[in-house]
Amino acid sequence: MLINPGMLLFALLDSGIAFLLVFFVTRSKFGGAKSTLARTLGAIFGTLVFIAYFAAMIWFNTERHTISDAGKMVVYAAPIVLSILMTALTLLSQPPTKKEDGEKTEGQSEETEENEEASGEEQ
Known about the structure:
It is a single chain. With 123 residues, this protein is an all-alpha fold. The chain contains four helices and no strands. It is elongated. The N and C termini lie far apart (93 Å).
């Protein structure tokens, strides 16, 4: 069983990306970073995905077992594409940030100054 060292490194990197994707999605689904159960389940599921994905990539690259090049590209690119999509989804689903009470925007500060001057002139 021979495998190219570059492909072995790629398999490790791609499997690591798959692990992180499953770990963070599982952790967020079961209660977030503070929940021990969520971290434990994330680590277990992530490790299982890492092992299965790494074994599949090694199996695809052995001499006796081969699949088509299109099939290999789908398997190789899946964790990378899913990570990019999940990152974009996370960034897009965040609520807009609220401004602090002490901070005023330029438009608000100008309006309050004008109102104060107008009320001072009326008196």
